[in-house]
Amino acid sequence: MIRVKLSELLGKRRKKVTELAEATGIHHNTLYRLYHEDSTRVDLAVLEKLCEYFNCRIEDLLEYDKDYVREIKKKNKSE
User: Fold this and answer.
1) How many other C-beta atoms can be found within 10 angstroms of the C-beta atom of residue 20?
2) CATH code at 53?
């Protein structure tokens, strides 16, 4: 699964999704879905704006983790 590390980046900077939306012009709902890793696709222009805002590389924003889906499924079953 591709992990979106937007929540980590925002947390490090103590910023909120609303502040990010205002600063980048990215729709709040788009950022909300990315923040909660509930998005199935991401527009390249959105990734570019996020990388510019955070002054980061794409690898700082996205990560491939083949075991991540299994971790989520285990967590959901235990709840």
Assistant:
1) 22
2) 1.10.260.40
Tally of domains in the chain: 1
User: What sign for the dihedral angle of Cα 63, 56, 12, 50?
Assistant: negative
Q: What is the mean pLDDT of the chain?
A: 89
Which residues form the domain of 74? 2-78
77 neighbors 22 (Cβ within 8 angstroms): no
Determine the Cα–Cα distance for residues 53 and 76; give it in Å rounded to an integer: 33
What's the CA gap between 23 and 9, in Å, rounded?
A: 15
Q: How much is the pTM? A: 0.81
